[in-house]
Design a protein that fits this description.
The chain is an alpha+beta fold. The chain has one domain. The chain has two helices and three strands; from the N terminus they run E-H-E-E-H. Strands 1-3-2 form a three-stranded antiparallel sheet. This is Transcriptional repressor, MerR family protein.
Length: 70
């Protein structure tokens, strides 16, 4: 598994690295719907762990099918 995010780092809203999965609004929509990567809510602060982001990204990985779709 390739890590897109630093495993031992915490990311907060506004960190440019989070833009790889979605903007602030998209992340807010996912949190509201119970979707997207795991996160911590500490008061009004939202924190994503790099390990959780990598796990979520790996779970959403798509393997192309040889020869394409018919």
């Amino acid at each position: 598994m390739t890590n897109l995010f630093e495993q031992n780092r915490n990311y907060v809203l506004g960190d440019p690295e989070l833009e790889i999965i979605g903007d602030r609004d998209k992340l807010a929509q996912w949190r509201h719907k119970g979707m997207g990567p795991a996160f911590y809510r500490l008061g009004r602060k939202i924190i994503y762990r790099g390990a959780d982001l990598n796990s979520w990204a790996e779970a959403n990985r798509v393997e192309p099918v040889a020869g394409g779709q018919n």
